[in-house]
Amino acid sequence: MNNLTLLAIDTSTEACSVALLHKGEKTDITETAERSHTKRILPMVDEILSQSGLHLKQVDALVFGRGPGSFTGVRVGAGIAQGLALGADLPVVGISNLTAMAQAAYEQFQATQVITAIDARMNEIYFSQLKAEKVRSEFGEFLQWNEIIAEQVGAPTRLLEQLTALQGEWATVGTGWAAYDALQFLGQHTSITLPSARYMLSLALPMWYQKQVISAVDIEPVYLRNEVTWKKLPGRE
């Protein structure tokens, strides 16, 4: 595992982040860049690689946040990932932004039961309910997130309707909880509000070893909300 080098990028929300796994160590750079992802992400990639004395072609795989999130942000991330992967002939691992926040809750607070909610505007949220279990494989022990509620977009009441009686402690992550009063009193709120490329590295590791990678030409962003809907909403992106 110490010989593996992974580069992760994410532009799907107002957070713009890059992260690197190299020689068993993780480094990351995160900025709030809601309107300048396209200007910042490549310089951030160059910076994190130069800090470790690496070139892009020395990376084993590229990891990217596939969504959901801002329509423009998800599209930018997928396009940048595709360009980098094609240019350096790298395999790609796409990671759910919602699951990345759940992983952050585990690494920061040891939470294994997480409800995610990102504000999707228009009185809707992107959400999922996830439960973790430790899985042993020939490559070591990894955390696997199982969907209790599959990721989707809808009104906050849609999430509440799907939640059955919650047993045990459930952590909540994402911007959706503070954005809508209906969600204020559900679960145990954490300080995690946005996804980060750093936690995508942890999720990508077992996928790499299990050869769950794709080629650059097969990259597909996950919007959940379709492009037609976005075009009907002036000022939304």
TrEMBL record:
Entries under SUPFAM superfamilies matching the protein: Actin-like ATPase domain (SSF53067)
Pfam families associated with the record: TsaD
InterPro entries named in the record: ATPase_NBD, Gcp-like_dom, T6A_TsaB
CDD domains named among the record's database cross-references: ASKHA_NBD_TsaB (cd24032)
TM segment ranges: none
Gcp-like domain sequence ranges: 31-162
NCBIfam families: T6A_YeaZ
Record-linked PANTHER family: TRNA N6-ADENOSINE THREONYLCARBAMOYLTRANSFERASE, TRNA THREONYLCARBAMOYLADENOSINE BIOSYNTHESIS PROTEIN TSAB
Family statement: Belongs to the KAE1 / TsaD family. TsaB subfamily.
Official protein name in the record: tRNA threonylcarbamoyladenosine biosynthesis protein TsaB
